[in-house]
Amino acid sequence: MGLFPFTKKKSIFTEDEMRRIISAIRTSELKTSGEIRVFIEAKNPYVSPMDRAVEVFANLKMEQTDHRNGVLLYIAHKHHEVALFADAGIYEKAGAAFWDAEVIKMIANFRENHLPEGIIQCLLDVGNVLAAAFPYISSEDKNELPDDIVFGKL
Prior knowledge:
Blueprint: H1 15-29, E1 35-41, H2 49-59, E2 70-76, E3 81-86, H3 88-94, H4 96-111, H5 115-133, E4 149-151
Parallel strand pairs: 1-2, 1-4
Antiparallel strand pairs: 2-3
Helix pairs in contact: 1-5, 4-5
């Protein structure tokens, strides 16, 4: 065994659920210049899930998109906490009521033990809002951020 033994990272999702979540990110981003990321960890080390989402957003350098239209879906699955943090370019265009409603839907999915389905629906809803405000322009658009799910401590 080498100095850094390989161990498979534990996941809260099946391979099919992971594939479907990533597919929802990609499907949403095909219609927009906006960028969507998902960050999942077991427990939120802060009091406010929004405070944690703001920190993760900055750590992932999501504010560096050309149009300031990145959106982070933050989940602390053991705490059943959710936050949607949207950069300045998209937050006001969608309005606070949209973001609040999406969080309420995600929490309802937590309660029903439908986490993957809730994430997918949220990603598609966010994608539709991004597409309306920042439509895809083939001559300009590029995938500015990775589409993978980012996992913190599970």
